[in-house]
Amino acid sequence: MTNTPQSPDMPADKLRSSMMEFFGSTDYRPMTKSEIARSLKVPPSVRSAFRATLDALVEEGVLTLEKKGLYRLRSSGGKNQLTGTLKFHPKGHGLFFPDASDEQNIATGIDLVANSRLHVNRRDTGTALDGDRVLVSLKQPSPRRQFRIRSEMEEEPEVRAVVEKVLSRRSGRIVGVFQSKGGFAWVDTDDKSVEGRVEIIADSTAETGQLVVVDVGQWKDRYEVPRGRVIEVLGWPGDPGVDIISVIHRFGLRTSFPENVLNEARAVPEDPEPSEIARRKDWRDKLVITIDPADAKDHDDAIWLEKTARGWTLAVHIADVSHYIKPGKPMDKEASERGNSTYLVDRVLPMLPTELSNGICSLKPNVDRLTKCALMEISHDGRLERATFFDAVIHSRAKLSYEQAQMILDGLPAPEGSDPYLVPLVKEGWALASTMRRRRFANGALDLEMPEIKVRLDSKGRAASAEPVVHTESHQLIEECMLIANEAVAKLLREKGKPSVFRIHEDPDPSRLMDYTETAKLHGYKPGDLTNRDHIQKLLDESKGSPEEHVIKLGLLKSLKRAAYSAEPLGHYGLAKTDYTHFTSPIRRYSDLIVHRSMQPYLENPPKPVDRTPSQADLREIARHISDTERTSAEAESETKQIKLLEYLARVAKEEDGQLFDGLITDVRPMGLMVEIPDMGVRGVVKREELPSGSRWRFEGHRKAWVSFDGKVIQLGMRIPLRVAAIDMEKRFVDFKIAGKPTSEGTRPLNAPPHPPTRKHQKPQTKPAAKAGPPNKIRKTDGEHKKKRFSGGGKKAGKKKRG
Q: What is the tens place of the pLDDT at every residue in 745-755?
């Protein structure tokens, strides 16, 4: 066995890498802590770090601590065990998502594609809370018999997971209503992971009926009531802001920065150092511009371009966060733990202190700013031909909002006092972007844009309105520039073999596509072979403008995997790109900061010295971690938005002749109709007693329809006008009532041929650009695009929709 001597000043990441190499050697045998230390020749100066790393590896499930204090690599004895994340379904059972890039999971030989999501029975979730990282064993139940079509009986085993151990808590916090009686206190919660209540083990200043945050500490058995301490009193249900604060606590999000992080941020000078400016390529005399939402504060990208004889030259300048944040420093550690900024409906929880995110790193106009630049030569047909990279300094000449840029594209005047070359630059930018966009769709990128809604709040934080988000050419202009820059950087890092973090979207599981095929057939389409990307896009094109368009897109989204980060360049299915990473948003994503450091040695003017980058093993862990933080943030963002949407609908329901909504029937059941407002993403039910009066209705399950005795039909896929009848804020569910006749276009029978093509049925590469939907929603919480910016938080609405 090869011993790896440790130096007294060895950093923690190097120590961990050496230990992992030691445990992974073919002749490693289970050893005690002392034996491991002697074998590695760990000096006394790093014994504390050694013990902490060993404990962490056990906590993460990499090692198991057995009898007599022996440490064993889990993969050598746990061939039927996986680590990953546990999520709780609203019905109470769990869903386990294994880490596809985890070395120990891969070493088990288990098919992580076929088992990318596993069911966990309620009784098998152990003491895990929602979002916890867990170790599970796979369980093959007794074969069960299941009736299928043609009355055939077929045995179909189903793999399930059983939680063996909680490796780490997402937050360990539960939000609920404080109750006390006779000296006994508890918290009632609707959190599905604890089934009702948490016993309070210490005195609290909370009053009965108030919302509180509980830190669950003592819980060793699923069948015991969990116990915890009240760590914060949020206030009374219904008080302004309490709903959002409760989400922040439940997801374990950070609302403030430690003092040492703030001190480091405050020490950064407002202006770049003259010596650093001298080292960089000077672009301060060029017309470099930003295009962002009108209320944006953190400008992390800027562009410049010109038409050439061969096509275009495009420069994408990205805020050089890596110049200010160095590996291992307090700001870096805090950013890595946060993983990304979180954009809630009423606020932003930034990854970096505002001194950097809204200050020295932000590419504000009329000030000098440091950037990393991707300078690209693009052909007449939108193909990337050549790219170079360098450190630069810019002096942004224009800060355009999306609305101002769109006015230019629509032929209206530029803002007063603008550079005379601004208008031709913006128009040429759209000529370039539209060309790249057509090429991207022609190469197989999927058109999966879903409707989005922006909730506006009043001064008290209550929902005042809900408006659709419209993405115009100005949004698409910036999106295409960012996509091509991300691709160019990923290609560089892959070709150089440089360890880094890549953005991946793996090919979908064929079995899920087969299920989706049946859904499409149910709506009258002939989808063909959906393992063929061309057939998927053809189906999407055929459904455009039809009542089933939303159902068809939603079904496909559920069939696709979630985009994630990986230390391996596996490509991006949805964008149809072999090379892809995240380079363009280091202010809000830690992945981009890692990428900036990885590319430093390949710049035309690299800094001296270049920043240290993590080992491949550590990059796998970083990729897993930031994929988790992204998912947590996306869920919190979605939940706060849903809360405010329901708050808005509740207000609308109280109005006389409340607002009409365009609803879609997504399922038909004996109890009534499952419906959705596609433009808002709100789901609910129309109970059978709320079906239009004046007719007697009968349920016809084979047609997925309710049919009246006088010949009226209400069936799956139809559009119907809806009004809000009632809202259950706790269950976050809406009762609707039908407020008129279903639209005629939705009344065709199931299995009939699709509607004839309309203008909306044109292919993405040929339809008017302003209407073209970018395939930037691979999953609703995919994270490929920058998240929408809401009022009050300075968040970007359209610009965040980038790869």
A: 443 433 344 44
